[in-house]
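Work through this:
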Amino acid sequence: MRSMLFRRSWRAAGGALLVTLAACGREAGPAPAADTHDEPAAPITNRIDIPPAVRKNLGITFSRVESRAVQATTRIPGHFELLPTAHRAYAATLPGQVELVVAQYQTVKKGDVLFRVESAAWHEMQAELASTVNAIRKAHAELGGLDARLVAVRGHAEGLRAQRDVWKERLAQIAGIGAAGGGIASAKTEARVALAAAETSIAEVAEEEAELIGAAAALRAELQGHEESTPLLYAHAMRAPLPTDSSARLDLAMARAAALLGVTVDVLCAPVEGVQVLPRWRAIDRLEVVATEPGVVEALDVVDGAWIETGQTVLETVDPSRLRFRAVGLQADLGRMADGMPGTVLPPGGSAASADQGVPGAIHIALEADPLARKIDILLDPAIAELPAWARLGVSTELEIVLLGGDEPELAIPLQSVIQDGLHKVFFRRDPKNADKAIRIEADLGRSDGKWVVVESGVMEGDEVVHDGIYELMLASGGAAKATGGHFHADGTWHEGSDH
């Protein structure tokens, strides 16, 4: 059955895999008399052509020769699970009627709108922000009016003081005349009355000036308070450029609004497109909740159109790429494991991934062991940002760890790359000088851990050996060699006969 499969694959390759292997011991018959120019047969070699078309049709893959501590390597079963940070819940920040924008199991990107909320509370907040802007403008206008009145009052006070000085001088003149008649006495009385009236008016104006100064000071303090606590609203009210200093941009009112909307303060302060004097917070009619991280909508906790309260969860997302591997190890190995040791999650058996496409990372030993089963969880956090396609939530496979105190690393290849060919075990090394050729090598093997096997000779670290498709190559080379009774030398040349 396997030979039939191979013949079909061979035909699918389009005849690209050509191996010339002569049968050992076959005596050549007499050449036809008419043909005296026969070319010598091509020498047999342990090099096999594997051009891209052959590799694709026969499913040939490669694994690298690695330096591994085979005897000290242990593998423990486990599965991929989500990190706690992979889950994210999105709740309503204000009460209102919800409009769902996404569906369950829909993939979302960062910034995608998840749902909207029609909230009267938001419109009340908009009114408060607008009221603050109006209060700033009103206070600024009133301060301008008070300053103008203060200038007028001070001018009036100067006139009254000049008038008072005139009447004082008039009284002095009257007193210097000496004995006064009835007319002089009357003038003196009139001057005194006028002087008293001027003094009274000056006092009244001084009182008004003091009131104006106090009112202006109160307005300046109010404006200063707005400028310090709500500098962005203050700048908007004064139609001034927004402050660029980070400390000056700490607007308490705008920060609260931004937190409720789930956006930044800069977004709220940005002008509406086409309307330079209108900030965005004035134009928002509904709250939009956007995805803060990419993921998949895992659950919808409310139905479309439902009324939700503040803090109520609307939907939940999960990032399936945020995974870790949880394996179950033996307590007996704890003395040879430590937090931070390197480990590798192997591709599951039967997958199309090669043996060197594992997920590396550092292991962490769980805080608590199982006293009855005498086992303990071993966790691995992947050290690569992008996981291979086979690494998915719930996939069961093995975690490979090199235990402490083991043997020295040795060159090893996957055990799957070795195949029995008659009395010999063989593997196929990719020719380092020609990637479209494979070299058949009789395996000189050492110890094995069931997944990898030590190779004593014939390879160097970094070489590639055939991982998948080895059976077809064995049929194309090893079977023919076995029938001839010959053997290959280390340099790749063929020698007939059984002597080495």
